[in-house]
Amino acid sequence: MNKIFLSLLGCSLILGSCTSVKPEKKDDAGLPASPRSVNKSDPLYKNPYPANTYNHFVARKDYPKTYDVFYDNALLAQANGGNSKVVVSLKEQRARLYVNGKVGMDWPVCTGVRSRPTPAGSYKVLGKEVKHASNRYGRFVDASGKTTNGDADAFTETPPEGGAFVGSPMPYWQRLTNCGVGLHVGKVGRSPRSHGCIRMPKAPAEKLFRITSVGTPVIVTNGIEDSSGHASASDLKPVAAVNPPVPKKKPVAPKPEPKPAPAETPAAPAANPADATPAPAPSAVPAVPEKAPESISDPRPVVPAASPLAPAAGTPAAV
Q1: I need a labelling partner for 189 at 20 to 30 A (CA). Which of 50, 62, 92, 110 fits?
Q2: Family, per the entry (predicted)?
Q3: What is the C-alpha separation between 183 and 198, in angstroms, rounded?
Q4: Are strands 127-129 and 173-175 parallel, antiparallel or unpaired?
């Protein structure tokens, strides 16, 4: 019996050593080295980081789904287009502004859907515009100004006859590509919903617009960057669209040509000949006989009747 107990005890010790979890890395203060390494699924979970720090913000149970924005005002006061960069995480649907390698702002974003994904990669701000409107996505209105299509694509669809296309407003626009991808204010959900751009709430978008300049780096990554804002090369590869729409102009129906007027139909004869009105005899020009006919019964010469087309007396004939 003792031998069986000892053998079972030995097996449990061996299994315990095989399934042991490596101790979590700690920082100098004894806290987890990364706020993303903490186990938030624990029912007794308590945020281990000091309040009002960025690590505490990331270690919150509702991060990254929260709509809240993190600001480090001391870092933002130093920020400019030369010492800053923006990192957009497609995985977390959040963007972060790094100032000298530290997070100065973290806010929610909304990127492209699967059929029009926001392309991952390294970009730079190409241009900025406070008031901007899309030349492709927007709505169609009819001649009276009433919206007929609230999600129109001017490249593939045609507005109603007499109507027009109204581009979607994109305040605080910062262009990243020449094919229409950029950062701008827009409706933000916690899942991808845009046509490829990066939508942001107004407050962080306005603050970011004042900090960046043309040439400021913007990184769009499929993963999560490290603590200094560096993203792996594999996470910078764009993801292909799933069933992308084929740009195709909607054919415009040709206007129907006017039909020729129908030929006049001669009136049908009256049922009672007595009621029919005789048509007037057509006026005909009397023909001039080449040679007056000779009368057999009358020996006198026959004088031809004067022709209305014959020249009057004393008028020279045409040569």
Answers
A1: 50
A2: Belongs to the YkuD family.
A3: 5
A4: antiparallel
Q: Are residues 136 and 182 in contact, defined by beta-carbon separation less than 8 angstroms?
A: no
101: alpha, beta or left? (left if phi > 0; alpha if psi -120 to 50): left
Q: Do the beta carbons of residue 111 and residue 222 sit within 8 Å?
A: no
Between CA 61 and CA 17 the distance in angstroms is: 31
For residue 310, the model assigns a pLDDT of 43
CA 19 to chain centre: 51
User: Which of 110, 132, 195, 197 is the catalytic position?
Assistant: 197
* Residues 199, 110: Cα–Cα separation, whole Å: 5
197 belongs to the catalytic site = yes
Sign of the CA dihedral running 192, 196, 202, 207: positive
- Per-residue pLDDT band for 200 (boundaries 50, 70, 90) equals very high
Residue 197, token pair as written in the block: 């751009």
| Token couple for 41 | 């699924």
- Rounded to two decimals, the pTM is 0.68
- Within a 10 A sphere around the Cβ of 169, how many other Cβ atoms? 14
Contact (CB, 8 A) for 205 and 132: no
Tokens 């309040």, residue?
Answer: 51
The pLDDT of 304-314, averaged and rounded, is 45
Instruction: Specify burial of residue 263 (Cβ count, 10 A radius: 0-12, 13-18, 19+).
Output: exposed
Q: What SS3 state is found at 206?
A: helix
Quote the tokens at residue 228.
């200094």
Does the domain made of 67-131+172-230 have the CATH classification 3.30.360.10? Answer: no
The backbone torsions φ and ψ at residue 35, rounded to the nearest 5 degrees and listed phi first, read -65, -15
Residues 6+ positions from 97 with CB-CB distance below 8 Å:
76, 79, 84, 85, 86, 103, 104, 105, 106, 208, 211
Of the listed 18, 184, 195, 230, which one is catalytic? 184
Among 161, 126, 154, CA closest to 138: 154
Element of type H or E holding 57: helix 54-58
| Range 75-79 contact pairs with CB under 8 angstroms and sequence separation of 24 or more | 75/99, 75/100, 75/102, 75/103, 75/104, 76/104, 76/105, 76/207, 76/211, 79/104, 79/211
Residue 177's pLDDT is what? 96
